[in-house]
Every structure is written in structure tokens, then in C-alpha cells.
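From the methods appendix. Each design record in this collection lists the discretized structure first, followed by the designed amino acid sequence. Records were kept in a plain field format so they could be parsed without special tools. The example shown here is representative of the layout used throughout.

RECORD:
C-ALPHA CELLS (268 positions):
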């Protein structure tokens, strides 16, 4: 990836580092934050981008397969609270919506379209008062060995190169982050926008912990202003702050059918 080309398209200030290959861009950001704390590195907002990771990781301890041809991007951002993952999903959705018809957000922060999962987001930290946001986007569908249930940007007729995609994602996510920070890390001003891009409303779903314990079951009705998922069951409404959503059957109103797979970049 050409760092100068990305920088040329950036409209938001950030310190950008581009690497050919890295273990995990989240780990690289963590190392650079430690160096910054020791007075040697750039202060946030800091972004590290690569097209290959040797040890990419996803949510809930899963691996994130990161072959050449994807976009792996991490940011160090000031702020605190549990809603930054949702804010970042809004940014990525905005950046890619024009290229990917029907792209929406599966709570809390997966980006899905009819073809499958296009992007996953992993927020870690805090580290030295920053949260580390990792964004993985499937860009180029491989000739062989594509991940079942995964969508790729190359499936769509779009002309943007990886550098332009990277810049668009940075511009949009940094823009939403600034709005969230200005609202003192409150999600309330962004909640309506999130609802309008949310998938699976009206669907029967289960929410489970990382270890598989059932947290809630019911029909998804939306989110509240704190970003919690709302489910309705037997006339009662439940709000869930953390968990993994799976559909109780594979029929959805959006015409999107999750594949029966547990591979990381794909649908759960
Ligand atoms: C998920 O499980 O859906 C989240 C996947 C997040 C993957 C990204 S790729 C860039 C960053 N570096 C990592 O090791 N993980 C995140």
C-alpha cells in the first residue's frame, strides 16, 4: 500500500503508518502507544494499516484470517466507554455503503451485506488513555480458498483501490469519533443513525456470552440510547450490553442467510 496515496485522500488529521506486513495492527498500535508514552513515538490519533497480518485476531478470542489482499487497520483513539465499537461500525458503514448495496450493521459492530460478512471490528484497551480499534475488511476475493460466508469488496463493481478505501474508512471513522468525543463519549446523538443502518430488526435471535451461555432471547427491536441491543420476548423488553447475536432460524427479512460456519471472518 502506498502511504502517500492514502494521505493525499485524508481529510482528517491522524498520524498514519503503513506496513507491508505485521503480526497484528492492533499489537503494532499497542507497541507504538508504549513508545509514545516513553516519549519516542507519535501521539494519538494514530493509525496503522497493512494488507497482511500473520497473527490477526477477532472478537471472542477467534483468529482473523488475514491473507494478502485484505485491509487491516488499527487506530488509537482517545475516549472511554463501551460504545466506541458501535461508533466505528457507523463510520465503516458510511465509508463503504456507496460501493456495497445493502451494507448494514449487525449489532454490535459487524458489517454485513447479502453476500456475507464484509468487515469485523475489535476494540481493545484502554492503553495509556487510548482505545485501540482494529478494523478488518475483506477486499480481494481470492481465486481459491475464500472464506465461506464472507463477502469481499471485489464482489462489487467498484473502482476504488485499497488506498482510497483505507482513506475513506479513516475519514469516516475519525469523523464519527470526533462527534462522539464532542458529546463526551455519549452514544445518544448517534443512536438514531445507527438504528437506521441496523440489520436483523424484527428477527428472532439469541444473544450469548463468549463461552456460549445464553444471555437473552427474543425478537430484535433495536437499540437504546446507550447502544444496548433491545429484544422483545413474551411482552417483555430486555436490553443487552454485551454478547454475540445468532439468529434462531436462518430466515431473515433482509434476504440475507447466515452460512453455517464458525470461521472468523465469516458470519457466526
Ligand atoms: C471480528 O471478530 O469480527 C473482529 C475482527 C477484527 C480484525 C481486525 S484486522 C485489524 C485488527 N488487527 C487484528 O489483529 N484484529 C483487528
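DESIGN:
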Amino acid at each position: 500500500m502506498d502511504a502517500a496515496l492514502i494521505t493525499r485522500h485524508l481529510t482528517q488529521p491522524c498520524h498514519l503508518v503503513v506496513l507491508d506486513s505485521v503480526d497484528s495492527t492492533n499489537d503494532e498500535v499497542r507497541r507504538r502507544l508504549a513508545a509514545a508514552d516513553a516519549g519516542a513515538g507519535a501521539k494519538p490519533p494514530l493509525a496503522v494499516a497493512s494488507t497482511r497480518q500473520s497473527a490477526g485476531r477477532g472478537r471472542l478470542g477467534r483468529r482473523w484470517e488475514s491473507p494478502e489482499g485484505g485491509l487491516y487497520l488499527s487506530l488509537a483513539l482517545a475516549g472511554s466507554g463501551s460504545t466506541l465499537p458501535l461508533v466505528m461500525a457507523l463510520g465503516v458503514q458510511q465509508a463503504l455503503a456507496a460501493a456495497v448495496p445493502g451494507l448494514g450493521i449487525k449489532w454490535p459492530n459487524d458489517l454485513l451485506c447479502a453476500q456475507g460478512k464484509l468487515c469485523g471490528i475489535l476494540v481493545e484497551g484502554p492503553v495509556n488513555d487510548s482505545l485501540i480499534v482494529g478494523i478488518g475488511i475483506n477486499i480481494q476475493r481470492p481465486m481459491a480458498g475464500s472464506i465461506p460466508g464472507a463477502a469481499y469488496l471485489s464482489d462489487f463493481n467498484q473502482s476504488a483501490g485499497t488506498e482510497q478505501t483505507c482513506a475513506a474508512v479513516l475519514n469516516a471513522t475519525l469523523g464519527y469519533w470526533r462527534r462522539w468525543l464532542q458529546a463526551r463519549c455519549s452514544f445518544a446523538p448517534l443512536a438514531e443513525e445507527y438504528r437506521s443502518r441496523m440489520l436483523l430488526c424484527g428477527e428472532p435471535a439469541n444473544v450469548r456470552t463468549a463461552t456460549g451461555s445464553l444471555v437473552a432471547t427474543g425478537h430484535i427491536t433495536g437499540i437504546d440510547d446507550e447502544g444496548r441491543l433491545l429484544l422483545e420476548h413474551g411482552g417483555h423488553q430486555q436490553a443487552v450490553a454485551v454478547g454475540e447475536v445468532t439468529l434462531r432460524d436462518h430466515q431473515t427479512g433482509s434476504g440475507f442467510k447466515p452460512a453455517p460456519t464458525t470461521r472468523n471472518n465469516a458470519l457466526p
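APPENDIX NOTE: The longest strand covers residues 116-127.
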